[in-house]
Structure formats: structure tokens, C-alpha cells
Design a protein that fits this description.
Length: 194
């Protein structure tokens, strides 16, 4: 396994920092909306308990993490293998001992780790009030409402991050994703069976 300095160089060679950032935001956003949907759905059903919601949210977060890791690793590994093959043909040289070869081995794992960890961490942040309820730690507001608020805050922060990356308005971009979250929550609350 390469050290941190070499990993940094391999990421630069493959220009994978942007790819990892896209997976971080895309999968984090997906997890935010998914958890928001689950929590609002459970909140709309009067018979639901935070314990049942927590089990569903945790199971979903694990599934999102595994899906993110496996799909990203398979995709990025195939893309980098193809790029290495094309580069080898263009250079008419064997690149088995090159940094490019090492990048095809390690960078897909790093990018996949970002892709898998992002939804898991985001989901656990949103589920934090449910975990606190399970541990009998009191909250100032009802558990489901705090969890919904967490999801909306996370969506706003992802929007602000996108605004920063795009060198645009962070607040406006944050409010756009917040609006998406609010609209999603309203649609689910209206459609959910009580």
C-alpha cells in the first residue's frame, strides 16, 4: 500500500479529486433525501416508533454504503484500466512498473471509499436523534422532527458546498437544495398512509 504522499500523487495523476468530490456530493445528497423520506414517512404513520425508524434507517444506510462502494469501485476500476490500456498503446511501452499502473490499483479503492462512506456518514448524522432516543437521551424537540431538521440542514450544506465549488452563491445554492428537501418532505407527508 502506498504512503499518503504517493497516494496524493496518484490522485493528481488521475485527476480523481474531482471525481471523488462528485461521488461525495451525489451519494451524500441521495442519502439525505432517502433518510428524509424514511423519517417523514415514519413520522406520518402514527403507529411508528423511533426504534423501528432507526432500524430501517440503519439498514438503508448500510445498503447505500455498500452500493456506493461496489458500484463506484467497479466503474472507476474499469475506466482507469481502459485509460491505462489506451496510454500503453499510445506510448508503445510497457507501463507495468509505472505510477499509472499503481494508480489503477489504488485510486479506485479511495474513490469508492468516499462514495461508500459519504451516504453512510450522512445517514448516521440524520439518524443521530433516533440513536439518542434509543440511548434514552432526551431531546428538546420530538425525535422525528429533529431528524427531519437534520436532513434539511445537511441538504442546505451540500448546496452551499456546490455553490462554493461552482464559485457561485453558497447561500442561494444551499437554499435551492433546502427547497428540494422541503418539497420532498411535503410530497411524502401528503402521500403517506396514516
Amino acid at each position: 500500500m502506498p504512503d499518503f504522499r504517493e497516494l496524493r500523487r496518484l490522485i493528481e495523476i488521475t485527476r480523481s479529486e474531482q471525481i471523488a468530490r462528485r461521488y461525495l456530493v451525489t451519494n451524500g445528497f441521495d442519502a439525505s433525501l432517502t433518510m428524509l423520506g424514511l423519517v417523514v414517512g415514519f413520522r406520518a404513520t402514527e403507529k411508528s416508533s423511533p426504534e423501528i425508524a432507526l432500524a430501517a434507517c440503519f439498514g438503508t444506510s448500510v445498503a447505500l454504503a455498500v452500493s456506493g462502494f461496489v458500484s463506484t469501485y467497479a466503474s472507476e476500476s474499469a475506466e482507469m484500466q481502459r485509460d491505462l490500456h489506451d496510454l500503453t498503446r499510445a506510448m508503445l511501452d510497457d507501463l507495468d512498473e509505472s505510477a499509472h499502473r499503481r494508480a489503477t490499483q489504488y485510486v479506485p479503492i479511495l474513490v469508492a471509499a468516499v462514495s461508500g462512506l459519504s451516504p453512510f456518514v450522512v445517514a448516521q448524522l440524520i439518524a443521530a436523534p433516533l440513536w439518542l432516543h434509543r440511548l434514552a437521551i432526551p431531546l428538546a424537540l420530538p425525535t422525528f422532527e429533529v431528524s427531519i431538521a437534520m436532513a434539511l440542514v445537511v441538504l442546505f450544506l451540500f448546496g452551499a458546498l456546490l455553490g462554493h465549488v461552482g464559485r457561485g452563491g453558497r447561500i442561494v445554492a444551499g437554499l435551492r437544495l433546502l427547497a428540494v428537501g422541503v418539497l420532498t418532505a411535503v410530497l411524502i407527508a401528503l402521500a403517506a398512509p396514516s
